[in-house]
Amino acid sequence: MEEDAALLAAVCDGSQRAFNELVDRHQQSVRNFLRRVVGRNDADDVAQETFLAVWTQARAWRGESAVRSWLFAIAWRKAKDMQRGWFRRRRRDAAWMEGAEDSTEESGVMQRALEQAMASLSQEQRAAVMLCLAHDFSHAEAAEALEIPLGTVKSHVTRGRERLREVLGET
Question: pTM for the complete prediction?
């Protein structure tokens, strides 16, 4: 969007107001994406790191892609960075805590089934599925954000969708 580009240009000039507006516009979708990719408990931390990077590295955006794709690319890289070290330990602890919660309500059961189905996908498949199916990215936009070939995104989405259908059933 041209509005996003204008906001990012203002952020480059040090505008806190423009930064706040950019965060307000994209924060929820970035967090939703990250919740499926890295888990609910770590998504907020990664989102915060993402927007910190936007503030400190706004000049790195060259205008070759949409601002939204650039934001999701940063979020994806931050998620992978965190995954490499201490992140595994935190995710294991979070899974244990979530398993201890009472999920007797039907919506809780459905949510848990979806989370387990998503967890059965590889991290790259989860990311591609979330961008294309939940955030309405085109395959090309997702490829750009994830920094992987277009064919790989299409493959991940197709296989991910098949795996989700297999785990959750056709409904």
Answer: 0.65
